[in-house]
Design goal:
The complex is a heterodimer of chains A (214) and B (116). With 214 residues, chain A is α/β, with parallel strands linked by helices. Chain A contains ten helices and four strands; from the N terminus they run H-H-H-H-H-E-E-H-H-H-E-E-H-H. In chain A, the strands form two sheets. A two-stranded parallel ribbon of chain A has the order 1-4. In chain A, helix 3 (61-73) crosses helix 4 and helix 4 (75-83) packs across helix 5. Chain B is mostly helical and 116 residues long. Chain B has six helices and no strands. Chain B starts with 32 loop residues before the first helix and ends with a helix. The chains are: A alpha/beta (214), B mainly alpha (116).
């Protein structure tokens, strides 16, 4: 959408952010009102809201990739992750919140993929906010019924000999996929391995990148 | 759009696992500031015990399939957060109405209206 008001300044003298100069919608009007009322009633503060946004912005698939790369290189951690992914991720310094996190390991013969058929539950603490398609009717409806077709739409064509397991998340129990470690990465450091771990590989709609890709 | 049938098959509209649908959409948008604020309000208000994620979902599910087709994700969320906060007694519908009127009076864009 074009922005025609680049040179306009807000009442405080600052330029508007790019997404601030569109016509106000009813629901944005409600967001502003609710936020202001919550501050006035002492439920929260403007600083706390900003800090929470910063926390969420800082969460990205890089967090999950660090967990995966460590699982690939540290057998004890891998075992701990399989036993209790929440505790193992917390031990790496990631805030997992109260939810139960389960790590699903892909192997040569088994491929895991995650979905939330009821809504949009996602391992947001390790991957950030979910992509739009994860919340779409199509992904939610079809992944549990025809996962191979859905995966093919992502360019992932699995042989018939591979078992596909679909995991339906809930608000309190979420999954992360540990993709198979790519061939040709013996001796790689966890930092370099993490660069091969994509967001989609941790959802299960993709694989980790091959070493030639980086 | 959803089909209306005379027989209830035991599931509500949001319980869509296994139903037929088209290709998975590939378009992606960057989250706008107001959407991030809605997300933050949910995390903060629920972490302080004013309502739960189940309360959020109850209102979302009661909105029905029309809202799912016509409203965006965070539009549905702010509507649900607001409903839960009113039910929790944090503020009244009258206070909300008055504040929304004041917000709209500040200007025609989000940036202007948010600079209270």
């Amino acid at each position: 959408m074009p922005h025609d008001h680049h040179d306009h300044l807000s009442p405080s003298g600052h330029p508007y952010r790019a997404d601030d100069d569109h016509p106000l919608t009813y629901w944005q009007q409600m967001e502003i009102a609710v936020r202001e009322l919550l501050v006035e009633k002492g439920v929260t503060t403007a600083e706390e809201i900003s800090a929470q946004i910063d926390t969420m912005d800082a969460r990205s698939p890089a967090n999950g990739a660090a967990v995966v790369a460590r699982a690939w290189t540290d057998p004890d951690f891998r075992r701990a992750l399989r036993d209790d992914a929440s505790a193992a991720s917390r031990a790496m310094g990631f805030d997992i919140g109260p939810m139960k996190l389960i790590a699903l390991e892909n192997t040569e013969t088994e491929h895991n993929v995650i979905v939330c058929t009821l809504c949009s539950c996602y391992p947001r603490n390790l991957l950030g906010l979910p992509p739009d398609w994860y919340k779409s009717r199509a992904y939610r409806s079809r992944t549990v019924k025809e996962p191979r077709k859905v995966l093919a739409e992502f360019g992932l064509n699995l042989p018939a000999t591979t078992t596909v397991r679909v995991h339906d998340s809930t608000a309190d129990m979420r999954y992360i996929v540990i993709p198979a470690r790519p061939e040709g990465t013996d001796g790689w450091s966890p930092e370099d391995l993490a660069k091969l771990v994509t967001r989609d590989s941790m959802i299960g709609t993709g694989k980790a990148k091959s070493p030639d890709a980086v | 759009m959803t089909q209306k049938t005379n027989t209830f098959d035991g599931r509500r509209w949001h319980d869509m696992g296994g139903t037929a649908a088209g290709p998975v959409p590939t378009d992606q948008h960057d989250f706008a500031l107001w959407e991030k604020r809605v997300d933050a309000l949910m995390v903060i208000a629920s972490s302080k015990g004013h309502f739960t994620v189940d309360g959020l979902r109850r209102v979302l599910e009661d909105m029905g399939p029309e809202a799912f087709e016509t409203m965006t994700y965070y539009e549905r969320w702010i509507a649900s957060i607001n409903q839960n906060l009113i039910e929790a007694g944090i503020y009244t519908t009258a206070e909300l109405a008055q504040r929304m009127t004041e917000v709209a009076a500040r200007g025609a864009t989000y940036g202007e209206a948010a600079s209270g």
